[in-house]
Amino acid sequence: MFTEALREAFFDSIQMLPFLFAAFLILEAVEHYSSGFMKKTLYKVGKAGPVAGSVLGCIPQCGFSVIAANLYSGGIITLGTLLAVFIATSDEAILILMGNPGRGTDILNLIITKIIIAVVAGYGVDIFFRSRSEGKKEIGEICDHCGCHEGHGGILMPALRHTAKIFLYVLVFNLVLEVALDWIGAQRLSEYLLKDSLIQPFIAALIGMIPNCASSVILTELYLSGAISFASVVSGLCTGAGIGLVVLLKMNHNPKENLKIVGLLYGISVVAGVVIQVFGGLF
Each residue of 137-148: pLDDT tens digit? Predict the structure, then answer.
């Protein structure tokens, strides 16, 4: 069992390497070479961030959530944009649905629903927290006390060092998670779910917060088997930001803020799921 868990953990973690490196390279480039023009450009893009984030997030992989977590930690994107990416991310769900003939309507409904939730939530959060969050973050905060810039003036080595550190962190985390999931089992997990209940979106959202592609697989399979409703799978997949959540907790050195982000992600996802459960007769 441990060997299989190690293999799965390594496979899940290795897929993140290109995205981790790309994100850290961007952060290092902005930190070292940013100019007034670049800052103005980032600010303008930031206004459309929730829309861009939701569209990128709906692409079936969790790499963009990793990038978004790094960019938010470096002060490049807003909290609303970060949450838009997290909410729109569906990880393996779309691919699993595509592998089941006759599920085209489900795929379309899921993507459209998650994009709408992501955009509305993203702009709502940015508007509400604007006065509280402006100017708080600086790109250099990621590198505070890490010593990654000592002895050189380039951007490649710091990016590689950050990538290696986070990769090891993610690998260990995924290994522990895989062992735990193997021990619990998807069947036992499905027994804890309450069919057609307003409580179900709450439970599904908790499952979705497992920062691993396994959560999206479990939720999608439970939905395909009829164990959970469309509202619940939406709720669960909205919290399912993949490994991006782990990267955020590691890179954003503000535990209080991280707790707020997790709470917002869970709250928005549950509210969306309950609303769909109550009013979503069309689904």
Answer: 555 555 544 445
**87 falls within a domain:** yes
Q: Is residue 149 part of a domain?
A: no
Q: Is residue 147 part of a domain?
A: no
Q: Which two tokens stand for residue 46?
A: 């930031």
When pLDDT is cut at 50, 70 and 90, the band that residue 154 belongs to is: confident
- The residue segments making up the domain with residue 23 are 2-142+154-279
End-to-end CA, the chain: 39
Q: What's the total number of domains in the chain?
A: 1
Domain membership flag for residue 238: yes
What phi and psi values does residue 132 have, to the nearest 5 degrees? -95, -20
pLDDT of 202: 94
State pTM to two decimals. 0.74
Most confident region among 41-50, 115-124, 195-204 by mean pLDDT: 115-124
CA distance 65 to 90: 10
- CA dist 101 to 61, 81, 106, 132, 211, Å? 21, 33, 11, 47, 28
